[in-house]
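re the bet — no i am not wrong, look at it urself. input seq straight from the record:
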Amino acid sequence: MAKKGFSRTKFFIDPKLQGKYMVTFLVPMLIMLVFMLLTLYFASQTIISTAGRIVKQEVSSTISSQLMDQAEPTAAQYRDVVEQIEFKVSSFGDAKGLKKEFTGTLLGIFAVGILLVVIQVAMMTVFFSHKLAGPVFRFEKACRKVIDGDYTDVIRLRKGDQLNNLADLLNEAIRLSGERIKQKEEIK
């Protein structure tokens, strides 16, 4: 006879605890998303301003190099300058130096952004896991004492730690088990 597999029928077993964890992780993730969007915005603004600066420099250098020595430039000379400017502007996106500069700028901005996000995630995981790992460590310690026959230990958790209901239940189980063992020993 085949066993039936585990089927989840209820997603919110402890809505208060699960809701707290959902909010605890959702809010920082939203903050990181906003941070990344701001980083993307800042990067795009940097690229736009860099592109504008480079185009302005190219146009200025073309005009000054072509018309600098001319006291009264002719219409043909102006036309040549305009054609050169149009060519430079149309080939602007193909420039290898420009792509290299944009790539360097983007990589620098995103590297700082990613580094800050990694630091934030590392800090969050340490902080939030400690609120769960601390109580689990304390439960293990209490269970070892019970295994050794000591039924006097009381589990106390820090304010803000998770699993307080389980701590209360274990405390009650340890206390009642100790009392029952004591009663059975007295009867003997």
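see?? The mean pLDDT is 81. told u. also The chain has four helices and no strands. so pay up
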